[in-house]
Automatic annotation (TrEMBL):
The lineage of its organism: Bacteria, Pseudomonadati, Bacteroidota, Flavobacteriia, Flavobacteriales. Belongs to the sigma-70 factor family. ECF subfamily. InterPro entries: RNA_pol_sigma-70-like, RNA_pol_sigma-70_dom, RNA_pol_sigma70_r2, RNA_pol_sigma70_r4_t2, RNA_pol_sigma_r2, RNA_pol_sigma_r3/r4-like, WH-like_DNA-bd_sf. This is RNA polymerase sigma factor. It comes from the Bacteria. It holds the Pfam family Sigma70_r2. Residues 121-169 form the RNA polymerase sigma factor 70 region 4 type domain. Residues 28-91 form the RNA polymerase sigma-70 region domain. Keywords: Sigma factor, Transcription, Transcription regulation.
Length: 180
């Protein structure tokens, strides 16, 4: 987006803040929704986390330094909000984060917003077996086609480490799909 600096300026000014924020919503809402949805699985949960993400963006835009792209900064917030959401849900249900993921996948079959077939479901189950970081990297690369350079900015990890994580995740998923 070429006019990102203009949008950031308007977001930080009190004059056009709400109009600029609506523009921001239009630009990023869908991409952030799917990023969150890949992590929390359920449509309703993704909606809640998306709302929290935009509230945080709105409240903290003045603290945005411009060291990274606005998109990367928002993705980082969405990622952290999703992980926090999963952690809180796990604590509330007194189960592990992994079990929360498993539960979410089991519920996908009854989710009216899930349009996947058996293969999609099997892939989701395979992804759920990965450690959190590998899940994140796999989802961002496979489903969202985010470049390693941008991912590195969002997750604050080196491109090399991300490529290695993706490679390992892919192997584990292939093994899972072969054996289930």
């Amino acid at each position: 987006m070429s006019d990102e600096s203009g949008l950031i300026e308007r977001l930080k000014s009190n004059i056009n803040k709400d109009a600029a924020f609506k523009e921001l919503l239009v630009l990023y809402k869908e991409r952030l929704y799917w990023h969150i949805r890949n992590m929390v699985k359920s449509h309703d949960d993704a909606d809640d986390v998306l709302q929290n993400t935009f509230v945080k963006v709105y409240r903290n835009i003045n603290g945005f330094k411009g060291d990274s792209k606005l998109f990367s900064w928002m993705y980082r917030i969405a990622t952290n909000e999703s992980l926090t959401f999963i952690g809180k849900k796990a604590k509330r249900l007194q189960i592990t984060n992994e079990e929360v993921q498993q539960l979410a996948i089991d519920n996908l079959t009854s989710d009216v917003y899930f349009e996947g077939d058996d293969i999609q479901m099997k892939l989701q189950k395979a992804i759920a077996t990965l450690p959190e970081k590998q899940q994140l990297v796999f989802n961002m690369k496979y489903f969202e086609d985010i470049k390693y350079k941008d991912m590195s900015e969002i997750l604050e990890t080196s491109e090399g480490a991300l490529k290695a994580s993706y490679h390992i995740a892919t192997k584990k998923i292939e093994d899972y799909l072969r054996n289930h």
